[in-house]
Amino acid sequence: MGSEAGGAVPARRLELVADQADELQVALADGARAQSADGDLQASRQSFERAFGLAEQASDVQAMAVAALGLAGLWVREPRTMTGAAALEARLQHVLSLLDPHAPLALRIRARLAGEADYRRGEHAAILAVLDEVRAAGDPLPLAEALSIAHHCLLGPDHVKLRRDLAAELIKASFRTERRSDLLMGLLWQTVDSYSEGDPHAGRLLGELRGHLGQRHHLAIGFVVSAIDVMLAIRAGHLDEAESLAGVCAKSGAAAGDVDSEWWSGAQLVTIRWYQGRLSELLPMLHDRVHSPVLSSVDNSSVAALAVAAAQSGDRRTAASSLAALCGSNLANLPRSSSWLVTMNGVVEAAYLLGEATVAARAYELLGPYAGLPMVGGLGVTCFGSAQQALGVASLTSGHLDRAVDHLRAAVQDNLALAHWPAVVASRQRLAQAYALRGGPGDADDARRELDTAMAEAAALGLPVPDHPVSGPSGPFAECGRVGRKWRLTWQNRSVLVEESVGMLHLAVLIANPRQEIKAADLVTGLAALSRAAGDGAVAQPVLDHEAIGEYRNHLRRLDAEIGRLESGDDLDRAARAHAERDWLVAQLASAAGLGGRTRSFPDQGERARVAVGKAIRRAIVRVSEADANIGEHLRQTVHTGVRCSYWPG
Fold it and tell me: In the predicted model, what is the mean pLDDT of the chain?
């Protein structure tokens, strides 16, 4: 009896050990299937976590290594938080210390550690060195993993050809590993690279990838494909559809357990609102997202989007702070990640809105080598059109108008080739602006032609576009024009009607003469019958000099010609707007001119004029704010009153 009882305990222990070994193998198999065959990253993490714990209890170093590699995931930097990344690195280093340094598992772990470290620093030298070792070893499994990791560390704009070579090598290696995920990753990387390069045949690769997913879905790869679908809808100008697809993409990423599911849909919404002229609506979201712990350490696109959105909404402090954070001590230090071109586009746009010519000039230098690339973000997540667009806007900001025209012409052509219609509209609009600012022979006609084309294309897409180029190199200016007995104020694709008032007349004059100081007394005496000469020996000065009046009369002649052209072409809406502008201009000339066309003069009563004009303008801005808080805030920050008054945007 005693000997039988004593023998039963070891037997039960052996059974327990066998059960644990079976459970370990099941957990490893479940993790591998979820990750490689299904692309279910959440399920694979759970299985590999269970497997690692069982392997650690059993002191099974080989199983610990396999489980730790599984926990690292398909992508680089899957654990995004500091604690998650540190825990993974600690496990990998611990297991590596227990392995034979020459074993294939040790090589796989070294490749993963090198890739994780390189990606975090925005580098690639370490992973490429390990990749050379893996190639020399000749084992296809470590090779496939190292190729994909290396590719992920080279997603910046400098390495397009090298990435495509790595992806092609990965596809070949997949036929030796016989792992479905290796083939899908190779095809995905080829597809992403093609779109990032602006390859006109990228759609063929996407079609091939879709074919493989049609045979059996893979959640993680399918998530990226769903993101590319959003990008293509944005390019097509189907922005409502793109917004709907962004929601589908977010659900797809959540189903795959991908940590990028939340921000990718956010980045897509930023792009959609950018082209809709509604980016400022996303300010609350962007304020939250820039501090999200799950954002990639090398992704600064959310900060750039915040800078632009804040600048557009009139929050100059947030915009300037965000732009300064991006520039740091040297703008060149921003990591050249997959989001670098999109981030730089945001830097350029924010610099334009804030009038930061120095930042724009530096951004131009950095973007120059990539003029031929589209500004694609992430793994084909979103696209802002050709980099020529950013180079053109940077040139506008720094005052290089000939260069701006050249780049924006190229941007129109490149965006047409990409079939990125919202970007085509934006490029034509900025090209029209560059022509108008340059003012060379034929530039006015070229500006009108580009803007007319942009308006027609925008109308077809349901996009907003100004009816004439009013933006200067320091940022979009407001416009102010009569509509019957009211004034229409337009700024940043926002528009509001305000009742007639003395203050609105003053604002109209200041807005029509941006960045110029006008004496308050000139504004007062420019209003017919509101001032009387006091006599008392004061020196009289003209309200408008003869050169200014000559310019107004030249503009009247141009308006007359335009009205005739528009009416003959049955464009009655624009003809009516031109008539309204002409009527206002005639009234202004009449108020500035005396009997027989002599220039009206005024006595020097600067202090009285300062008080009267200041009160009138402040009352007008209050009325504007009641109708539209954003336009009102813009005017509060840019209209300055005193003895001399000015409208100083940027």
Answer: 85
